[in-house]
């Protein structure tokens, strides 16, 4: 389905700050993996390459999840205001 | 202002390189022609900015603070009729920027999509690898925006398509050329079930 032009993937410029608008747009598109998909489909990705990439992504996601859990565990605090003077 | 100066300096440098390459050599014997070719290439590569991977702003990690900001960054149903400089949003002229790794093509259309101006880095006078630089894109954007202002189109919408070094600098160039940019739209064609692309480059 085609999206409505100038409604989808559009950022309005505030106070003539074009750079910020571009940054927001690029950040959203990068996070949504739209740029990644664009780059990936410039050339044919052979099935073995797809398998390798998907497996790598799976491993990375598992590692990141565990690592985040570990960091949260090390950084845990047992006080009313966990980071005094930081709010 | 300082940005402008640096860009001008960059353009001058490029021009000088082109002149150096164009002037015939003093020696009639061309025994070292191939050596000079290597040197010229080195010089040209040195004059060009470092190759930039990715898109500016894409990789930078910062906390999403857009939600608590009061400013309205995203259009809604009422934006189409909102007035900008006396013109409704959906009747503003559109600047289409087509970016690729090797070139940048900028065209200006009216709100119906009828093209009025077109300009690319190649037309601008940058040839070969220099076409695909951010300096070339910026220079092209500055000239086309001057022409658009002559037509009386000062307030515009921008549509960007593709990835490449000219993506950000073309938009910056439009602003430097005196255009008032209302919105930035991404129009990159992305599909999750595309027809089979061409085979991979052999490196």
UniProtKB/TrEMBL annotation, chain A:
GO terms for biological process: translation. Keywords: Ribonucleoprotein, Ribosomal protein. GO terms for cellular component: ribonucleoprotein complex; ribosome. Belongs to the bacterial ribosomal protein bS21 family. InterPro entries: Ribosomal_bS21. One of its GO terms (molecular function) is structural constituent of ribosome. Pfam families: Ribosomal_S21. NCBIfam families: S21p. This is 28S ribosomal protein S21, mitochondrial.
UniProtKB/TrEMBL annotation, chain B:
GO terms for molecular function: structural constituent of ribosome. Gene3D superfamilies: Ribosomal protein S11. GO terms for biological process: translation. Keywords: Ribonucleoprotein, Ribosomal protein. GO terms for cellular component: ribonucleoprotein complex; ribosome. InterPro entries: Ribosomal_uS11 (IPR001971), Ribosomal_uS11_sf (IPR036967). Belongs to the universal ribosomal protein uS11 family. HAMAP family: Ribosomal_uS11. This is 28S ribosomal protein S11, mitochondrial. It comes from Drosophila rubida.
């Amino acid at each position: 389905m085609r999206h409505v032009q100038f409604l989808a993937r559009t950022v309005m410029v505030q106070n003539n700050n074009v750079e910020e608008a571009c940054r927001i747009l690029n950040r959203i598109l990068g996070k949504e993996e739209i740029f990644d998909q664009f780059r990936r489909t410039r050339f044919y990705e052979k099935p073995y390459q797809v398998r390798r990439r998907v497996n790598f992504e799976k491993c990375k996601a598992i590692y990141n999840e565990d690592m985040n859990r570990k960091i949260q565990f090390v950084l845990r605090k047992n006080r009313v205001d966990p980071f005094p003077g930081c709010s | 202002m300082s940005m402008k100066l640096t860009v001008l300096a960059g353009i001058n440098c490029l021009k000088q390189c082109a002149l150096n390459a164009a002037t015939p050599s003093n020696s009639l014997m061309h025994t070292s022609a191939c050596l000079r070719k290597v040197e010229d290439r080195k010089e040209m590569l040195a004059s060009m900015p470092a190759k930039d991977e990715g898109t500016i702003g894409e990789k930078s990690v910062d906390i999403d603070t857009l939600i608590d900001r009061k400013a309205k960054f995203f259009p809604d149903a009422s934006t189409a009729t909102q007035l900008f400089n006396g013109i409704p949003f959906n009747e503003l002229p559109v600047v289409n920027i087509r970016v690729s790794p090797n070139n940048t093509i900028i065209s200006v259309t009216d709100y119906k999509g009828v093209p009025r101006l077109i300009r690319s880095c190649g037309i601008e006078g940058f040839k070969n690898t220099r076409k695909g630089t951010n300096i070339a894109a910026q220079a092209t954007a500055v000239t086309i925006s001057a022409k658009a202002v002559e037509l009386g189109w000062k307030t515009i919408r921008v549509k960007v398509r593709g990835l490449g070094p000219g993506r950000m600098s073309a938009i910056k160039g439009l602003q430097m050329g005196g255009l008032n940019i209302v919105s930035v739209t991404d129009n990159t064609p992305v599909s999750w079930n595309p027809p089979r692309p061409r085979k991979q480059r052999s490196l």
